[in-house]
Amino acid sequence: MRLFSLVGLLLIAVIFASCTTTPKKEGIFMILPSPSSVVISGISELSASDVEGLVDQAKSDYISGKALQESVDKSVTFTLDTSLDLKAEGYTLEISEDHIDISASSKEGLWYGVITLGQLVEDALDQDAAIPLISVKDEPALQYRAIQLDVKHHLEKKEYYYELMDRLADQKINGIILEIEDKLAFVKQPKVGSADAWSIAEWKELSEYAMARNIRISPLVQGLGHASFILKHEEYKDLRDDLTNDWAFNPLDERTYEVQFDLYSDALAAFPFAQYLHVGGDEVHTTGRGSGKSDLELQLTWLNRVSKYAEEHNVTPIFWDDMPLQNAGVYGSIFNRKLTEAQVDSIWTVNEPNLNKYVDLFPKNCIYMRWNYEMPETHGNNRAMKWFTDHGFQVMGATAGQTRWVLMPLEESNTANIRDFAKISIDNKAEGLLLTLWDDDSPHFELYQRGISIFAEYTWSGEKRSSEELNSAFRQRTFGSELAASDYAFINDLEAPVAFWKNALLDSRDRNRLKRMENPMQDAVLTLPEADSPGEWSERNKEKLAKARESQQMVDSVLVKIAASKKVALRNTYTLEVYEQVAKVTQFSNKSLLLLAEWDLAKTVEERDATKDKLLSLEGEWKSQMGELEKVYGKTRVLDKPAEYILDQDHHAHLANQAVKFSDWQFYVENLFIQKIKEGNSFEMTGDLKNK
Q1: Closest residue by Cα to residue 373 from 420, 326, 318, 428
Q2: Which residues participate directly in catalysis (predicted)?
Q3: CB atoms < 10 A from the CB of 571, how many?
Q4: Is the pTM above the cut of 0.85?
């Protein structure tokens, strides 16, 4: 009887519990990039953890080459129907009470339907919420959505690139232009490859990994100009246009093409799925060794040769278009917002004949890439693009997520430029857009991720979200749902301190150009206060000190937000660690400046001596900070170049090209400042300070 009573009570408890189960919670779902249309009408009966298993299996099947439409799982149906009114990578996603339907006109569309389903599952699991009843119709605004991966100044660790391919796939990025320079171990021209270069087989393996995720990698092999990685070597000096300068090839030397074509051949072997061969061609003036030919003639001579090679090898050449526009005299109209449309049209009326004169020499199989990182919306930029299209040429735009920013990308990861160029490209029904991520000053790659997300949004969806909404979606996708709240937004707040940091410890100089100075510590690094002139230094630097105080307060706030974010982030806490290191680096400069002011304004000898001790202790603090930063950065990044690496002539003052050791270029200014503090005899003072 007692046993029966216990069983009966347990049964009643189970029945009671089933009757009082808490209703499933609705979640907040942020798909990135935004779908073309989405309607959520309630919550389904599907288990988020079960659907997570379906997503993982579908991804695994697609990557392995299996046809998703052949899936026999009863909870999901994949339909491949070429008659559907969808673009090539478009899809529909329908989630009912107990079933999921994904339809597309291409296998890539089914893949992207799975990607979106995976984001819904991730949000549901993050929030302990139900899978929604949802109807999605989605397709890309631009067909080609590619990022530039620039490895010329350093490499990441190999596993990082594989993880990056997965991240890019989750944002529906479908192309990479990989600027390879000397990071490929060329077989046909082995002297060009650096000691740390990957083999053809290693790059091919990454290319295959990316292609399985619908990301096609195409190489950029710099040519005509930007050729220092080749022409710095003794074996190639006779191919220089200017024998004293390692920047440009002589386009009239036949061996120039022998070398270039050998590099192309190895690069295409390393990236066998390439649809493009980006040949570079920007920022270069050549003389042809006094040939008497114009710059434009010489460039078109070279461009026709390399474009013919591309055609013969079944890839489409891409060429930066700036030099023909400069040589014709219309380039200035592109980068001047003050010009009216009438003024721009006048410039083109006068100078367009300089282009038209050579129009028949422009190869027709080439894509002319109109790069503009500052003001793509100008009438001059549109006129340039229109000239190419009006003459039957293919044109594609290039925006930027990173240009010459040193510690991290600024201007909200260049949001305005990315948005405007994407809108222009969509309105003009362009094929696609490239996001350049230059390694010239080489911030940590994790700091590019926000810009990539912004680019993914605008190229797939157009302008569907405000900047604040897009940044919230980025944080939710990257770190977890809780960080979507504005309380955890800190990246924009870090921008002003980073911009100030660049030259904060210098006297009206630019960090990038110190290596060219004979005595940078004396002539560029901040002049220290003098013991016999108390207060004069602080008065002279009052604006800089005001910025340091403002920056210090802002960075303190940022560090608090990062610490809070690390506690609740569900993934990608490493990204937060990198931002934390950036913030701490800027704070060191703020602290140093304010300590100098404290010493300069001290009221007593005792106060001044105490502050002097703090200043001298900066060396130990900086070494500790560098140890911490290099430990964090070094988790994914190969910090130093090979010991025997040959630096080139550094025509564009690329910080990352100015030393072999990471800290010797990235933090050259800080190291000089510490040395100046140690050696500065202005801190030596005895006697009564009040009498001075």
Answers
A1: 420
A2: 283 (proton donor)
A3: 12
A4: yes
CA distances from 422 to 215, 234, 430, 433, 611 (A): 19, 43, 9, 7, 53
Mean of the pLDDT values across residues 5-26? 45
Structure tokens at 528: 């220290």
Q: Which two tokens stand for residue 656?
A: 């990352």
3-state secondary structure of 641: coil
Which is it for the CA torsion 454, 455, 457, 463, positive or negative? positive
CB proximity list for 667: less than 8 A, separation 6 or greater? 585, 626
Strand pairing report for 144-150 and 175-179: parallel
**Which residue among 108, 283, 377, 628 is the active-site one?**
283
Helix axes 341-356, 379-390, angle to 10 degrees: 30
| Same domain membership, residue 513 and residue 452 | no
392, two tokens: 């039957």
* 196 contacts: CB under 8 Å, gap ≥ 6: 155, 183, 638, 641, 642
Q: Over the stretch 339-376, which tens digit does the pLDDT of each residue have?
A: 999 999 999 999 999 999 999 999 999 999 999 999 99
Asked whether residue 97 falls in the same domain as residue 173, the answer is: no
635 located within any domain: yes
Domain extent, residue 51, equals: 37-138
Question: What CATH number is associated with residue 99?
Answer: 3.30.379.10
Q: Do 87 and 103 fall into the same domain?
A: yes
Residues 444 and 540 in one domain: no
Query: Does the residue 584 lie in any domain?
Result: yes
Q: What span, in angstroms and rounded, lies between the C-alpha atoms of 647 and 254?
A: 26
CA distance 339 to 346: 10
Listed residues 138, 166, 185: the one ending a domain = 138
Spatial CA neighbour of 476 closest among 27, 159, 25, 23? 27
Residue 482 pLDDT class (50, 70, 90 cuts): very high
Residues 60 and 181 in one domain: no
pLDDT tens-digit profile of 76-100? 999 999 999 999 999 999 999 999 9
Please give the sequence-ordered ranges of beta strands (E in DSSP) within 229-301, or none if there are none.
Answer: 276-280
**Residues 529, 667: one domain?**
yes
d(CA 627, CA 6): 64
- How many other β-carbons are positioned within 10 Å of the β-carbon of residue 80? 17
Is the pLDDT at 5 greater than 50, yes or no?
A: no
Same domain, 433 and 301: yes
Q: In terms of domains, do 313 and 176 share one? A: yes
> What is the SS3 assignment for 24?
coil
Kindly tell me if the per-residue pLDDT of 137 is higher than 80.
yes
Asked if the structure places residue 278 within a domain, the reply is yes
Question: Would you call 208 a catalytic residue per the annotation?
Answer: no
| DSSP track, 432-495 | EEEEEE--SS---GGGGHHHHHHHHHHHHH-S-S-HHHHHHHHHHHHH-GGGGSGGG--HHHHH
Residue-wise pLDDT tens digits, 534-592: 999 999 999 999 999 999 999 999 999 999 999 999 999 999 999 999 999 999 999 99
